[in-house]
Amino acid sequence: MSDRRTAILEAAATVIARRGVRGLRVEELAEEAGVSKALIYYHFDDRAGLLRRTLAFVNNRAERYTAEQEAADPPAGPLRRLEQALLLELQDLPHVRENSTAWGELRASAVFETELRSELALASVIWIREVADQLGEVRPTAPESALAASAERLTALLEGLSARWLCGILPLPDARTAMREGIAVEVAHLARRAAEPSTEDTPSRANLD
Amino acid sequence: MSDRRTAILEAAATVIARRGVRGLRVEELAEEAGVSKALIYYHFDDRAGLLRRTLAFVNNRAERYTAEQEAADPPAGPLRRLEQALLLELQDLPHVRENSTAWGELRASAVFETELRSELALASVIWIREVADQLGEVRPTAPESALAASAERLTALLEGLSARWLCGILPLPDARTAMREGIAVEVAHLARRAAEPSTEDTPSRANLD
DNA sequence: GTCTATACTCCGATAGAC
DNA sequence: GTCTATCGGAGTATAGAC
């Protein structure tokens, strides 16, 4: 992968975070990357191809950030590690906000551009499994299915909160608090699931009506 | 409000659900509504104004649907009522899908179009309070702050799951299951909050590390 | 691989008649 | 209030030189 190519992808993430997928203009991207418009069409067939590659790039970068953070600030215990991983996306650092915004944009546009779906689905599965694994380290006796379900909910919650934060209707501290409490609630739930293995996949329903 | 105006707004929701806010072309909208392009600019100042009005329209319509559903299928008890309200958005009926898609699109585009934010924030606050109230009827002894926090999480979870469903990476039945379990988990959490009033705003943290 | 210059399409917005 | 006709700008993509 050439330097130029990477520079274009980095710039694409920046411009998408600034203007959205719909607001991305090849000309503005060219300026941001310090290259000509034509070079973008040379490296990526067209606009759609560019978006696909950008999505992959953003996903990779998010993985790198997670690894970097864990190295820089080693979490004390599995619960802290899980919190760190999930709260990582809710930070007002330039590159984090950029990544979150670009990811949200690309996912939103996938509702209408089918080409992005497979890339998106893959990243989603990996991310959910990662969270499920970390939940498993916090609650080793909880059943796999319960871990997977909790991970699904926690990652969906994160995306919902992130969307609200990014569109300005939920202050960042509130989003972080909501996420932290959401983790605590799910972890407590898993503790009960582990303690009462008799409760089947529909957890604690009978006693709620 | 004239018939034409309403017809345009209805058509706008339809076209947005079909092509996205990004894909909305005033010409296609005119065709869908059976009017001329110029009439759209007559009734709504510009594209941005049209989007603002469409957001308000979609919100109103969602409220109407909720009321209609409650009348048509009276829920048995407060928990069922809550479930019905939250699961309403996760249904593959044309008008529901249209509403959800349009709402998701408009929220996503609000990241870059500041004008939509106030309308969006207002609808969000109302919706969260509504859910908090219904949670309060399920768990009358739970503190207000806990109800509000649970409502925030549940509505964010709904939006996260809905986004995944609409962009095709999460099958609808899975989304519905996740939502139902999410409700159960939060309701169980509120039961503990009511039972142990000593536990402060950071729920069950101390015993988790 | 990278640039400059340009072709051509599409679309938002307005003018002006009825 | 509603239409037809049109303008002007913005934006994607390509041609062709280096």
Description:
- 2 copies of one chain form a homodimer.
- Chain A has 209 residues and is mostly helical.
- Chain A has a domain at 58-195: Tetracycline Repressor, domain 2, CATH 1.10.357.10.
- Chain A has helices at 3-23, 26-33, 37-43, 47-72, 78-87, 94-110, 117-138, 144-166, 172-195.
- In chain A, helix 1 runs antiparallel to helix 2 (26-33) and helix 5 runs antiparallel to helix 7.
- The longest helix of chain A has 26 residues, at 47-72.
- Chain A is elongated and about 60 Å long.
- The model of chain A is unreliable at 203-209 (pLDDT under 50).
- Chains A and B meet through helix 1, helix 6, helix 7, helix 8 and helix 9 of A and helix 1, helix 6, helix 7, helix 8 and helix 9 of B.
- Chain A binds a DNA duplex (18 and 18 nucleotides) through helix 3.
